Amino acid sequence: MRFAKLVDYLAKLEATTKRLEMTHILADLFKEASEEDIAPIIYLTQERLGPAFAPIDFGIGEALAAEALAKASGKDKDAIKKLYKQHGDYGLVAEKLISDDAKKLTVAQVFERLKQIATTSGEGTVATKTDLLAELLGKVSGREARYVLRIPLGRLRLGIGDPTVMEGLSWSKTGDKTLRPQIERAYNVCSDLGKVAHIFKTEGVDALAKISVAVGNPVRMALAERAKNAEDIVTRLGKCAIESKFDGFRCQVHKQGASVRIFSRNLEETTAMFTDIAEGIRTQIRAQTAILEGEALSYDPETDEFHPFQVTMQRKRKYDLEEMTVKFPLRLVAFDLLYLDGKDLTGEGYAARHATLAQLIAPGERVQIAQHLVTQDAKEIEKYFMQAITGGLEGIMAKRLDSRYQAGARNFNWIKLKRSYQGHLSDTVDGVVVGYLRGRGMRARFGIGALLVAVYDAKQDKFATIAKIGTGFSDAEWLQMRELLDPIKTEHRHARVDAVLAPDVWVEPRYVIEMQADEITRSPIHTAGKIGDEPGYALRFPRVKGFIRADKKPEDATTVGEILKMFEKQGKAMRNDK
Ligand code: AMP
Fold first, then answer.
1. Residue from 306, 384, 405, 416 to probe ligand 1 pocket by mutation (most atoms less than 8 Å from CB)
2. Potential cystine with 454: which of 288, 361, 463, 473 (Cβ 3.0-4.6 Å)?
3. What pairs with residue 223 in β-bridges?
4. Which is it for strands 429-437 and 505-507: parallel, antiparallel or unpaired?
5. Which CATH class is domain 3-153?
6. Is-catalytic flag, 245?
């Protein structure tokens, strides 16, 4: 496919905010794409050069883009900066400056060139990257240049999430969304939409079934639903396994001989950060190949007690790694086993997987099994819960004994029961920042005083607002927040955002924050859960806990569905109190 053709589609996608329309446009694009082009097209529309778990950083910032543009267009840098001030987007500047002569690069050629730029390293990298980008810009038309720059700069802003791509793929073959479950299963197992799309296109939907769990390829993680209390757990699961809920980093560990790779909850590779866990896996796991999951927590080797999350958090950084490993050593509390010596275990029951895992771990400091209690007695569960809380833990996890590992799914196979604070919702809500209001009073000098925050509407693949939040940050954090948000400002409401309120500044939905609130109320000014003229749902007295949840993607935010359940549960709890 010619890159110019892909650009036609990107322009069409840009012109709509309706999800169904986007799905149809994507379906046409996927239909027209050749077998070779489908994966690169999917990566490019998501502003990437590969799957999210193996990111190839473009390494193209605005300064480099400006320099390359100067070279390609023969204009001086000041003129370019001036144009940028006017348009606020290097894509548009490029379109203005580069001639519109017909050019003939293909999608594959542009993709390869961007990859070449991204992987350039060593001495003189910046100069080489600039030259290569300038050369690429010289080979495309103005309209194409707009996207050649927007993609690496992360400014495409099409609002296409994974669900929309998956539905587009289904539509491309059947004209409806009936194939989405098979596509989604394959994606959940391999976490690579490009790969899934390629197999789907070349071999058909049935071939997707052969995608299975593989070492080195992170599996999208299973997630938990909530319970109100111990009885609720017993009603749903009957006899089940109760474990402590540890508050650290979810780790999915892939072991292949001496090579160990670790992936975070959002499938980013964290191997370099957690060298002590990797070492523990090498020395304590009695298996050649394995994929296991657990929670990594910092602990005090003197007392053998776990530290609170704030301390464990210190390990989430990219510098002083060795010092951190000594100061805050980590332990992996392992709770699940997905794969062992050539065998995919995800189809087996939880109890069997856990028992095999326990056998696999040699005694040692770094890796330990998550102990559990098998019971169907609500009183016993309650006791376990109280012990966990007293021990400074977050609560408990109940697991259905015969449940298979359901990649990427949140359901009642795992149920979390978290500590509740009186007068607070028993759970925190993870929201996505979609805009901010300029401060009044004291905060006016920061130019930011409150955030407009949304939750994820998984059905619509949109973000619907739930709170305006101005409490919980320190002055320094407000300033930091503004520094983070300004580069992702958008002129209008982002295509994936649903809102009644208009903040002073809209931003791209990218950052997730954790909020505590007193309760959920109905509100006409928020769109979470809003249907027709009915009011939506809002958080009462919301306050931020901590800072940005770097471990969560916007789609990992609390969903509208979860908010509705929390609202329902709250209603019942209130009625019980009376
Ligand atoms: P939440 O992030 O509140 O939805 O809770 C789910 C998270 O709890 C998982 O992603 C894990 O990181 C963490 N977790 C802590 N202890 C356990 C456990 N025993 N089993 C499963 N997940 C656990």
1. 416
2. 463
3. 410
4. antiparallel
5. mainly alpha
6. yes
Question: 527 and 500 in contact (C-beta within 8 Å)?
Answer: yes
Atom of ligand 1 nearest to the CA of 427: 3
pLDDT band at 517 (very low <50, low <70, confident <90, very high): confident
Ranges for all domains in the chain classified under CATH 3.30.470.30: 223-421
Q: What are phi and psi of 3, to 5 degrees?
A: -60, -35
pTM of the model: 0.78
Task: State the Cα–Cα distance between residues 5 and 295, nearest whole angstrom.
Answer: 46
Q: What number is the average pLDDT over the span 526-538?
A: 91
Please state which CATH number belongs to domain 428-577. Answer: 2.40.50.140
Tokens in use for 257?
Answer: 């001989």
Decide whether any atom of ligand 1 lies within 6 Å of the 306 Cβ.
Answer: no
Q: Is the dihedral of CA 498, 500, 501, 502 positive or negative?
A: positive
Average pLDDT, the chain: 92
Which residue shows structure tokens 């609500």?
378
Kind plus residue range of the DSSP H or E element containing 115: helix 107-119
pLDDT per residue over 79-132, tens digit each?
999 999 988 889 999 999 998 876 789 999 999 999 999 999 888 999 999 999
Fold of 223-421: D-amino Acid Aminotransferase; Chain A, domain 1 (3.30.470)
CATH 2.40.50.140 residue spans of the chain: 428-577
